[in-house]
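Feature request disguised as a bug report, sorry. It would help if multi-protein outputs had a clear separator. Right now it looks like this:
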Amino acid sequence: MISHEIHTLVIGAGQAGLAMGYYLKQRPDSFLLIDAGKEIGDSWRYRYNSLTLFTPRAYSSLPGLPLRGDQHGYPCKDEIADYLEGYADHYQLPIQLNTQAISLEKIKDDFFIQTSKGNYIAQNVIIATGPFQKPYIPSLSGNLSDEVLQIHSAQYTHPNQLKEGPVLVVGAGNSGLQIATELSQTHPVSLSIGKSLRMVPQKILGKSCFWWMDLLGLSEVTIDSKLGKYLKQNDPIIGTEAKPLIKQGKIKCYPRAIRLENRLVHFQDKQSCEVNNLIWATGFHSDYDWIQIPELFDSKGHPIHHRGKTPVEGFYFLGLSWQYRRSSALIYGVGKDAEYLLQFLKSQR
C-alpha cells in the first residue's frame, strides 16, 4: 500500500486536535488531522442528554474563535459539538474522519502510521486523543445478577434508559454527581464514594469560580509546583446541586464498593444495598497499545513527557489531564499547550 508523506500528523480531531490545527495552520508545513469519529464533535454529541459544561461560555472557547451566546451562561453538550464542527470549518482545517489509527512505529527519523484509510510517513506526530479513551470499570469480586442493568456513564443518555427501581452510581466525580442528581427525580438513587467529596459552587458572589481562579492565579498553577501536585490529587467537584439532595436523603451515600453478589452491592463499611441498575461513573483509561515505541511510556503505560514533549524527537501528546495546568484537558486551556508544542516540531526537510 502506498504511504502518504506528511510533515505533521495529528491523531484525534477533538478539542485538542483542533487547537493544534489552529496553530499548525499558521505555518507553511503540511499537516493532517485524522479521527475515528464520523463527525467532528461526536465525543460530545453522544454523551448523556442533560450534560452541561461546568465552565461558562467565556471559558469554553478554542483559540481565535469565541463561543457565541451569554458569556456567563453554561453551554450544553450539543452546543459544544456544533461549536467544534464550526471551528474546523471556519479555519478550513485538513481533517480526515472515519479513520482509525491501527499502529504506529518509528523508522529511522520518521514515524510510520497505519490507519484504516491508508498509511502515512510523518516527521512529527501529535497524539491528541485526550484523556477519555476507554471506559474504565473496576474488577470487583463476585458477580451481579443478569437482571441488573449495568452501564458505564459513557453509555448513559437519559433516565428512561434504566429499569424501574433502585440505582447505584459508582463514582462521585462531576459526571457521577450530575447523573445521580438527574436520576434522583425518577429513581431511588445511591452513590458510592471512594473519597471525601469536595464541592465548589459554580458561582461565588455572582462570578464564575473560574473567574476567581484567574484572579487568584490558580489557573496558572502548574503540575511542577507543590500546589499543582496537591490540586491534582484533591481536584474538587464543580457545582453543588447534589449537596442538598444528599442532605435530604434523596441521594444516599455509601463508601467504596468492594463486592458484588446477585442484586447486592457490598461496601467498605460492611453495609450493602440492593440494586436494579448500576452505573459505573468510574472514569476512563488510556489505550496506547497500538503505539509501538516503548520508550514513550512508563511501567504503568502512562506517557512520559514534559508539557507534552516526549523523549522521542518529533513525538508529542496534547490534551492530557494536567498536562501542564489544571485547564490542560479543558476547552479553554488546551490552546496554551498546543501553542507551546509548536516550537518543538521538527523542521520540514
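(second protein starts here, but nothing in the output says so)
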Amino acid sequence: MGREESDLVSASQIFYPCMQCADIFFLEADICQLGEDQREVNMLAREYCVPFGRKFSPIILSHPMLAGVTGELSKTDPNAAIFMEDTETDVNTKIKKACCVPGDVTKNPCLEYVKHLVMEKDGKFLVERKEENGGNKLYEKYQDVEADFISLALHPLDLKIALSKAINAMLQPVRDHFKTGQPAVLLKQVKSYRATK
C-alpha cells in the first residue's frame, strides 16, 4: 500500500488488500484487468498460487487510471464516467460536459481518453472540421494532439466532437451484442443496480 512498516495503519488497510486478493479466487478470474494502482494486489494473488498449489495463476492486465469526464475519479457519480452500456446520446452528453480547459493539458480527461483509449486502440485520431476552422486533421501521434491543443490549434469543442465519435465507434459492437436475447436480459439486470456511497 506504499507505506513503511513503521507506519500506523488501520485494520481496514490490512484487510482491504486481502479481500481484493480473495475476490480474484472467489470469482475464479483467469484475467485480472484493473488499474495500475491495484497492481500490488494482483501480484499478491499470483504469488499466492505457488505455495498453495493453484494450477493456474491469473493473468494481470494493468492499465492507467483515467479520471472521470468531470476531471475527478468518482465511483458513485454515473455522470462522471462512460460505461460500456451507454447510448450514443449518453456518451455525447457526457463528453460535451467534460472538463476541457483550452490549452490546459493538466487534469484533462478528454486528452487522457484520446491518449489511453483512442490512440492505443486505433493508432490515430481524426478531427473533422469545416475548412474555415482548419479542415480535417488526422493525428497519428498523441504528442501532436497535445501540441495542437496547447497552441490552441485544436479547439476543445472539436476535440470533444471527435472524441465522442471515436468512443461511440468503440462501444457500438457492445451495443449491438446487448440488443436481443440473453445478453439483453443481462444488460437490463446490470442497469437495475445502483451504486451507493
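Even a blank line would do. Unrelated, but nice: Residues 11-63 form one domain.
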